[in-house]
Amino acid sequence: MRKILFGLMILILIAPFYFAEEIIYPSTISELTTQVTLYGQGNISGLAAGEEAKLQTITFQESEYQKVEIVKEELIINDTIIKPTYVLDEFNNKYAVFNITQNGDFNYEITANIQTSALITPLTKYIIPEAGERVKKYIQPSEKIESAGPEILTLTYNKVLGKSMLETLKQTVNWVNNYVEYATGDDFRKYYLEQKSAAETLVNKKGVCDEFANLAAAILRAKKVPTRIAIGITYDGKDWGNHAWVETYYEPLNIWIPSDPTFGETGFVDAMHIKLGAFDDITNSNARCIYPANASCSLDTQSKLPNVKISDKEFFNVVQLSSNTSTLKTNIWNDFEIKIKNKTNSILMAPVSIRETYKEILIQERKKEITLAPFEEKTVVFKIMPILELQNNQEATGVLTVNSVSSPFQKEITIIKTDQTQPPGAVIEDITPIAHSNKVLIRIKATNYYQTPEDIKISITSGNDDDKITETIPATNSKVITREMNEGTQPYYDINIDTKTEKYYQRVVTIESKLFTPTQTQTPLTIEMQIQNPTEGQTSTDSILKSPIAIIMGLLAGITIVLLGLFLVNKRYV
Questions:
Q1: Per-residue pLDDT reduced to its tens digit, 501-553
Q2: Which of 422 and 62 is assigned the larger pLDDT?
Q3: How many other C-beta atoms are found inside a 10 Å radius of the C-beta of residue 438?
Q4: In this structure, are 213 and 243 located in the same domain?
């Protein structure tokens, strides 16, 4: 049987994974040894004799999963080398403080040898308790985490139905990971330099890691789960850069456990997360320059990315992957089965994903998360449709790579021709309510996997409103449909959607912040989602909410009335 060029093309595409050592899939790494250098620069002017400015920037610190050996911490100005002193903030984060007594341009570097380990905490299911005094502030709203507003409360009530800590954490991380589109191109720089709030991210449906973290933290706080924002450095599969994720308080062990909604990691983060600190709000992570009123200070921590050199790494070995699927047929959905077995004696929430993104292969929901009991084995099914044109005597071959908390698993596949055809059918992947300005937006995401456009019929009904529309979903594409309901004070909306193959129904309940109390419980029976076969693929909308930019410029101190200006610099995140 003659094999076509597609097989060679697949092998060429995957060749970098065999031969380029620097290409690593982050979630597969359990231990990492690196040398990391952070950079910053700026200028001091206007200092009089005997005056000084202070540069305060966060530095590496040790934890139970991170060992640190400082190699160099110094600031250079006019060929003068300045060593730091250290302070701790209210969150117990460590800062290097450089006392500067000269005017001029300066550069600083912080270099450390760091060993990180991914700690997978033995998890148990427990009902979320009332937060104790020590962690109570982490369930309160903050500048970028509007957890008490109607936007987040309505979203949480309708989308996160879990009652236990584990269910809540898993549903939140999974939903945010699938809902928010990671910004690319010009949008990437826009979001990279800004920090959008949770409510803005809900509307914009786009961002980078800090937007993912803010939205996840807001949902978790709305569910009364103490949650803080962690910052540090990570690798996204291509580059190293600054990063943000979340940490939730785990009551049974009196510890904070990390999760990464950007990477879809729940109850753990991989060892390529090098942590700098944790805060109640991401705005508190900014570097600062403190200087007299007659002076000025500029500070740039964004122009140069961290430099990371890997000296050693180890893969996870907590699950075992296998597969018996080896043949896929063209132009129909195939079940690509992956068996995953928990090798540990505790509950594990394991991400499972297919790495490759070939245009010749459609994949529904290429990333999943599976909850496994101790030593349990489950079968994960990925829906895959090759869209190659083959003759009867042709076949295509290649490799699919599956990533989880293990070394990458690769499976050779053969694609053969079939005369079968896939029946049309759009899939309703998500229905999200957004409450704002006394109105409610109903955002519906639909994906059409068929080769021709398909119409879907949508009916949204409330006590005083009945909105019926027909939308066309392009071939092999996704579309986000947004409907604004003017009667935003209605207690609920019934949503009915008809496609050629499925009927979908969901009741959306609106929550006002003044009516929502910590003792109020959800009623899962009001939600009757019938969504099947969800898939990735994001579509963005324009921003509706705009947040004011707060600039803090002054503290009065001392009998000499010295103005201490805080020059806040947004960190750069991947």
A1: 888 999 988 887 543 333 333 333 222 222 223 233 333 333 222 333 333 33
A2: 62
A3: 11
A4: yes
Range of the domain at 197: 136-262
Structure tokens at 139: 């369930």
C-alpha span between 354 and 233 (Å, rounded): 24
3-state class percentages of the chain: helix first, strand second, coil last, to nearest 5: 15, 45, 40
* Strand ranges inside 451-525, DSSP E: 454-461, 466-473, 477-485, 492-498, 503-509
Same domain, 57 and 82: yes
Q: Where are the alpha helices (DSSP H) in 230-364?
A: none
Residue 441 has pLDDT above 60, yes or no: yes
CA count, 13 A, side-chain hemisphere, 210? 30
CATH code for position 65: 2.60.40.2250
Per the CB < 8 A criterion, the answer to whether 456 and 498 are in contact is yes
Express each pLDDT in 202-252 by its tens digit.
999 999 999 999 999 999 999 999 999 999 999 988 889 999 999 999 999
CATH number at residue 444: 2.60.40.10
DSSP letter at 510 equals P
- CATH number of the domain where residue 209 is located: 3.10.620.30
pTM for the model:
0.84
Tally of domains within the chain:
4
DSSP string for residues in 357-408: --TTEEEE-SEEEEEE-TT-EEEEEEEEEE-----TTEEEEEEEEEESSSS-
Q: What is the pLDDT of residues 393-411, one digit of tens each?
A: 899 999 999 999 999 999 9
Would you tell me how many other CB atoms lie within 10 Å of the CB of residue 129? Answer: 11
| pLDDT tier at 488, thresholds 50, 70, 90 | low
Q: CA angle 96-195-518, nearest 5°?
A: 100
Per-position b or e across 256-288, b if 16+ CB within 10 A of its CB: bbbbbbbbbbbbbbbbbbbbbbbbbbbbbbbbb
Residues 251 and 140 both lie in one domain: yes
How many angstroms separate the CA atoms of 364 and 135, rounded? 40
Closest to 384 in 3D by CA, of 335, 429, 344: 335
199: part of which helix (H) or strand (E)?
helix 198-204
Q: Which tokens belong to 493?
A: 């909306």
